[in-house]
Amino acid sequence: MAKTLQNFSSLCTILLTLLLLLTLVGASEHRFSRPLSRAKLGLKKEKLSHLRFYFHDIVSGHSPTAVRIAEAPTTKNSSTAFGAVLMMDDPLTAGPELGTKLVGKAQGIYASASQTELGLLMVLNFAFVEGKYNGSNLSVLGRNAVFSAVREMPIVGGSGLFRFARGYARARTHKIDLNTGDAVVEYNVYVLHY
Fold first, then answer.
1. Cys-Cys with 85: which of 74, 111, 118, 130 at CB 3.0–4.6 Å?
2. Could you tell me the maximum CA-CA distance found in the chain, to the nearest angstrom?
C-alpha cells in the first residue's frame, strides 16, 4: 500500500508539472501585448500634411446639417446654451461657398460646455471623400471657444491614410449669421501620419 501511495504521489507530481507547463505555454500564446515592427505593419516614413477646408454648420432652414439632440432643463435660460448637445453631418468644402467642391463631412457631436462663454466640446471625425484621402478620417476631440479669433483643437487619431495620426486643427470663423446660427469656419489642419 505504501508503494501504491508513492506511485500515486509520483503520478500526481508528473501530472501537475505537465499541467503547469501546458498553462505556461498556453499563456504565451495569449499575451496582452507584444512589440511590433513598423515595417511589418506597412508603416513607412512619417510625414506632415496640411489640409485646408471650410466647415459649413447649418442649424437653420429645412435641411439643417446640425440638429439639437439633447439639452439640460436649464439650457433655455443659459446665455451660452450650456447643456445643449448637437449632432452634425456638416459639409467640408474646398472653398468658403457651400457650392464649392465637397472634400468631406464633419460627423460627430458638439456640446455647449461652458457657463460663462460659448465654449463647445467637439467630438467629431473629418470623413474625407476626395482624392487620395477618400475613405480616410481624422478624429478631433477638443474645446472650441467659438468667439475667439483662432481656436486650436487636437487631432487624436485617424484611419485609412491617417492611421496613427496626431496633430492639431486651427479653426477661424469665416462667416457667421447671428440670427440663424449658421456658420462657415475655415480649418487648417496639420497632421503627422504615415
1. 111
2. 98
